[in-house]
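Let's practice the habit of predicting before peeking. Look at the sequence and jot down your guess about where helices and strands might fall. Then scroll down.
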Amino acid sequence: MLTEKKQSLMLVINPTAGKNQARDNLFPLTNYFFTHNYHVTVFPTQAKGDACNYVAEYATQYDALVCVGGDGTLNEVVTGLMMCPADKRPRLGYIPGGSTNDFANTLGISSVMEKAAEQFCAGKPFCCDIGKFNGRYFTYVAAFGLFTEVSYETPQPLKNALGHAAYLLEGAKSLTSIKSYALKVRCDDEEIEGKFIYGQLSNSTSIGGILNITRTGVQLDDGLFEVILIHMPENLLELNDIVASLMSQKLADCKHIFFRRAKSVTVQSDAPLPWTLDGESGGSFTYSQAEIVPGAVTFNLDLPDNKSEA
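Done guessing? Here is the structure:
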């Protein structure tokens, strides 16, 4: 009813997300939120950085904040929230509209936008950990190496035909085509040194359509990263062992894959190491430091029954 007191909602939307799917669903979304007790103010992004700037400046004035777009837009929104005082950050909703939507998959958020809006309105607060990497924030993953590049190079027909395995197969045609990085990595009090072809620090069960970590033991509010480092294989047998372990998701069973949980991670390399943060360029560094920020952002979610495993 118009006389009913409504909560204020900041709707940050990337109009071009999902081949303009976000733009095409703008009215149904605002209408849905209005009929579910929210006054909506729409903030459409027009350039990179807009979402972060909008949220940092205006989010504390609202009861709730909803992001409509892909993982990159969500990263900007979360970064903006982290610039706000912790006690004034509104609860956050996510309506996925990108091509990958890793974090939405982890949270069990529907790919149907109006259904995702329903999940927000019916949800409850859930405090989620956020990653901090060399002063920048990331929602679900910081990564380097082979698969971070292959995802942009694999021909689309091959992706469609082979699914997620295409990333692995395209990148593993021969040992000579695999680039390795000599690194010294510290996970809390444990140190490992060697040549690695891939690494990730994550707080998610789905990474880029490449690695789908089993839900067992992965929690978004435990104050820990999942750390994966893949050694450079010395021969084709080791390469096949790595690929088989990734395909079966039995990471801990492969001696060529380092899998740990940690609160903080440092990575040292002789040459600048290029990173991606939530699928976007994160810069190149010879020394990187990452830490988990426990319970930094409160999502409003209609979580599945196995919340502790999601």
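How did you do? The first strand starts at residue 7 and ends at 13.
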